Amino acid sequence: MEKGHERQLTIAVDMIPYRKDGSNGGIVPATVETIRGLKDYGLTIYILTSQDNFEHLRFLEKLGAKCVNVEEEPQKPDAAVHSAPLIITDDSNIIPAKVQIYHKVKHHIAGIVPQGIYDFCVRHATQFRNIRIALTHPYEKLFKPIARWIAPHRLVEYHVKRNLIRITDQRDDTKENRIIDTKRSLRELIGEAVDVMYCPFTGITYYDPSVPCLSQINDIQHKYLPFFFTDTEFQNRERFYQDLIEKHCYLFAISDYTRKTFIDSYSISEDRIRTIHLSIRDRLQTVSDGECKKKLADKGLENIEFAFYPANFWKHKNHKTLILAYNMFKIRHPESQLHLVFTGYETEEIDDLHLAIQKMGLEQSIHFLGYVDDEMVSVLYQTCKYFVFPSLFEGFGLPLLEAMNAGKPILCSNVTSIPEIVGNCAVFFDPYDPESVCQALEDVESHPSIIMQKMKTYDKQLEKFSEDVYLKALVDYMWEIKRMENKS
Predict the structure, then answer these.
(1) How many CB atoms lie within 10 A of CB 230?
(2) Is residue 468 part of a domain?
(3) What is the mean pLDDT of the chain?
(4) Is the pTM of this model over 0.85?
């Protein structure tokens, strides 16, 4: 039974950008747990995948979802049925439609216009709202009056040639025409109507203008740390976010910090984007003591104390500063047996880190485990002495919740969304200053009561990010989108 709603809601979740090597970061486990939770709300869920990740994501079908490979060649339609393609375009002036086509339309043009032209007219008129359609075609004089009668509000011209469509917005003669390949609509791809396209990776990978998109804004790091991006990467990100705004997508940010920075950076009204804080389910299951010992031994971590940092080796994750601070700490406290353990997808940054560690003589004290599975992550959370999080930029920071849930002392940055998520539950430091990070390590080592007092507030802080609150807010927003689209 659906929670709080009586009717069915059908959504497509865009997982096409998913990469199985862990290089997407924490958004993948967060999305998987979201899908797992949404099944309790009675939603019909389709997972859009690529050819590369289709098989790897099929485990989601055990949660009641259905995986759809968007790159799979469509079956040939029945000879009696004409399958008209859908326009896939980045034209912000194309608006999703709810135009009803009456049977009398076919009566008007049956036997006058060839079946393929009639099907094109009806199919595309039903996919757009507030559009007047005109075709440059030998049958234009017969077709145009009927197309205008179907949708008489706005003029967008389609030139059909070799399965390509040229779009010209007649309101702006200076606008460059665009050539776009035609593709299948979500209805054609999936086999039924979709109410909402949910994009947890923010971008719209498979755009169907007839389906409203709900885009999850995870961060806009390029605006604040542009030196971590090439000019091309920066411009691509800018186009990426402008595209969401111009397409009039529905938006939600995963933290108040992300919402505020998005509003400030892109000058949108506050009502265009809301905050829905992420949550964690019991993704990380408790591992027995015996199994923990075995897995730690396999990694060469048996019988040692360590601080744990799970993060891909992107520049903003700031491993360098943590290593510098740790080196300072070891110089000042050579008796300390504290080690560092890193997990995560390894980038080209890793070579410089290994070289620096070698020069500092810390090869035996710093451990790189690479991308590990959830069970190993659980083992590391359970057995670490401290959880350390020196990130320079976060849109949320799911590992902070996981560390609280595991009951581990937290040492973390005092920037971006991190204070919002962790509250007063952590020992903070300045992530740009190795001395500040070193001082935090010294404080918790010499005065453990400082962090023990903060840990008493974990349960209260975690209540702010409960699964029920998160999922209800997300599902309610999807229903709200469906109602607004039905009214328009």
Answers:
(1) 9
(2) no
(3) 80
(4) no
